[in-house]
Structure formats: C-alpha cells, structure tokens
Amino acid sequence: MKWSHNLKTLRHGMRLATSVARAELGLVWPAPQPPAMPPAAAGMPEVAERGGDFGVLRMREYVPAMPLPPHRPLVVLLHGCGQDAAAFAADSGWIAAAERLGFPLVLPEQAEANNQGRCFRWFQPAHTARDQGEVGAIAAMVRDAVERHSSDPARVFVVGLSAGGAMAAAVAAAYPDLFAAGAAVAGLPVGAAGSTVQALARMAQAGPSRSPEEWARQVRQAGPSGFNGPWPRMSIWQGAADTVVAPENAALLAVQWRALHGLPEVPISDVTEAGVRCRRWGKAGSPAVELWTLPAMAHGYPVGEGQGREARFLPASPVAATPRIAAFWGLAA
Fold first, then answer.
1. Fewer CB within 10 Å, N or C, the chain?
2. Is the pLDDT of residue 323 over 80?
3. Residues annotated as catalytic (active site), given as ranges
C-alpha cells in the first residue's frame, strides 16, 4: 500500500538523518586528538597563518618555494568537517600541485567555536549571502591574496570536500565575478537547504523537487544584482557508496550548473575510465560542467595515481580528483 511505502521511506530518511547528524556533530567520530604539531614539524610543507580581519574564519595559505611571477592562478581549498586545512591541503595533493604548477593556495579554516565539528555553514543564509558571514570572509581572503601575490584575477578557483564542497558551490554562486571555476566533491546544490534541519534532510535524501531552471535560479539569486555572466564552470565529484551525503545530490548539482549555463540535458561526452564515469556538458575543449561518479567510493575526496595520500575521508581511487580538477580549470602543465 502507498501509505506503507511512504512510512518506510520516512523511517529510512529519519535513520539516515540521525546517522548524519551524529557524524556532523562529532558523536561517532574518533575521540578528539591532541593539537597537531606545526606542519613543518610534522614533516609537512609549511602552511602560514595570515593575520588580518577576515571575519569568522581563519586564513591560512601555502606559497610555493619557487619565485612566483605575476599573474599566476590562485586556488582556494575548503576542508571538510573535522579536517585541518593544512593536512587536507597536503593529503589531497593540492600542495604538490601548487609546487609543480606554481600558484599560491588560500586555505580558509573553520573554528570549533563557530560550528561543532568545524563544518562550513553552507546551509545558513547568513553565511552564504554575498558580503556576509563565511562567504564574505572567503571573498575577503581572495582579494587580499590576489593583491599580495599579484595573482591573475581572471584565474581564481575554489574546490572543497563535503561541507567544503557545498560551500565551494555557494561561494562560486555568490561571487561569480571573483571565481572562474569551482569544484565540489561530495557537495550539495546551492539553495538546497536554509537551516540545519533542512541540511540534514538533504544530506540524507537529495532534494527538494525543482525544475532545472528553478535550481539555476537559486544560483542567480545568490549572485550580484544584474550579473549576466559568464558564470563559473563547475567540476562535480561523488562516490556512489556515500552514506553521509546522498549521491543524488551530485546529479542535482550537475542539473543546477548545466541549466545555469543554458546547456541541454544530453552531455557532449560520457566516458568510463577505470570504472569511473565522467559526463561533460558544454564545449568540447572547455566544458562548463563535468560530473565524475565513482561507483565503489564512500564519502571522501579521491586520491591516487601518485597524487595525494590516503587519510580519513581521502580514500584511494583509480582516478584522483586533484589532477583532473586542475586540468578542467586549465592549470595542468
């Protein structure tokens, strides 16, 4: 009977939401560990803290040892819940990429005092509205770094994992005039939630039900008034075995950014490499949207191919995200 099916779906959603809530609040995470050693002492490349007023977030950055000529790209990396910004930058392979390709990394870091579990607040309007809260702090960091490093303002990019992935999409939506492209790994669509309760529901079950144009409107409403583009390009990554963020969120995120760019439903390419599926929409040489689906991967940022190293929420994969995202952005050497 229909009511029985609906009840079963509701119970399933509640169980998922409860497990997600426990994970988000740190109730099923490993016991808190002592403060990490400074990156250099731990054998990691040195990540500096940048002083200044950046609102609710702390700004850390990594600058390659090589002299950087003017007009180099700039990459912003947003960690996931419970992660340290410096460790995530090293483990994901972005510090190695910065050294190899020659660009600085901006590493915004969430504080436990702001949100238990150190999750970026991608679901709160006060932190996703342009020039407010956390997206405002990230934008201030970008402007500061672009000026200090004489970076190319037309080649600023943002990538994040989980809550950081959802925030990467949110900050790209709020500041399309700052970011050329973004990447969301295990993220959620812009405007999918407006409160903690809604966020937990959407992590457990993707939604709400909207047309492609309605999803695109969520991004347009977040951007500056009267902005007509070009909108940032978007690379989307999702493990099909993810039990923290429902994998269907990645499909909705692709729908959202595809519709934003006015692209048809049928991709220009649909290929599978080492069991990993990649669909692309837009121009063949420079697609506006790509969606990578990793069938066996749980919640996390895929590393491998000599890129990055395995750690919590950084599982080994036959296709690593960092070099492919860099190539999508046009950063590959």
1. N
2. yes
3. 162
